Amino acid sequence: MHMDNHHAIRYFENSYIFIKQYRFIWLLWFLAATLYNVDASLDIQRLRTPTAKGCDKPCNNGHCVNGTCVCQQGWGGLQCDHCFGRVRINGSNSGFFTDGLFNYTASARCTWIITSEQNSSLLLRLADFFTECCWDNLYIYDGDSAFDNLIGAFSGSLPPTEVVATSGKSIVYFTSDLAFNMMGFNITYQYNACPRNCSGRGNCVNGKCGCPSGYTGEACEVPFCANGVEATASPDGPCLNGGYCEDGKCNCNKDLFH
Ligand SMILES: [Ca+2]
C-alpha cells in the first residue's frame, strides 16, 4: 500500500516534469488546435450566412434577389411569367406583348397603354388568341383612356384579327374570372401599318388603304365593279353569278335566269 502510494506520487511527478519540459510544444499544440477550430467555425458561419441566394426557377420577366424573383413592371407571379397590373409602352414603332408564356392566371387584371409621339394610326394584331369564352375578355380602346371608344371586345378562340386605333394610342385591357384559364394571346402592334397590308395591293396612308380601281374594303379585299374595270365572268367577282363588269356596272348573265 505504501509502495503503491509512492509509485503514484512518482508517476505524477514524472508526468508533471514531462509536461513542464515540453510545455512549449503543448502550448503550440493548444494554439494550433484553437486556431483550427476558430477557422472551422468561421467556415460554418460563412455557409449559413444567406448573402446571395439564387432562385430555384428562372425569373422570366424579372431578376433574382435573395432567392425571390423581383418582376419588371407589368409582370407578376413567382416566376414573373404572368401579366400583372399596368404597363406603358411608349416610343417604339412596333412591338409585341402577351399575357405570358403559359396559361394566364385566374382573376387577371392586365393593362397595356400604347402611345407614341408619332401622329399616325396604330395597328394591333391579335394572334394565338384563346380565352374562356364570355368570361375572360380582352378590350381594346382607341385612345389612352378607358373613356375613349371601345373598338374591340374579344373572347373565346379567334383567328388572327386586326384592329386599328386611328388616334395612335390604345389601351388594351385583359380580365379573367375565377376559373378556367386558357392560353391567352400574343399581340403585335405597329404604327404606319394598314389592315392585312392592304391585301398586297393599294397604298397604305396613315393606317388606311388607298385601294386601286376595282377593289374596296378596309384591306382592299373586296373586288368592285368600277369604271375602267372590264372583267369577264369570274367566280371571284367583281360581278357574281356569271355576270361581267362593263362601264362600271355588272351585266348579269341573263341566261342563268331563264
Ligand atoms: Ca376564366
Automatic annotation (TrEMBL):
Start and end residues of each CUB domain: 83-192
Keyword set, alphabetical order: Disulfide bond, Glycoprotein, Kelch repeat, Repeat
One of the Pfam families matching this protein, by short name: CUB
Disulfide cross-links: C83-C110
Domain of life the protein comes from: Eukaryota
Gene3D superfamilies: Laminin, Spermadhesin, CUB domain
GO cellular component terms attached to this protein's record: Golgi apparatus
Protein name per Swiss-Prot or TrEMBL: CUB domain-containing protein
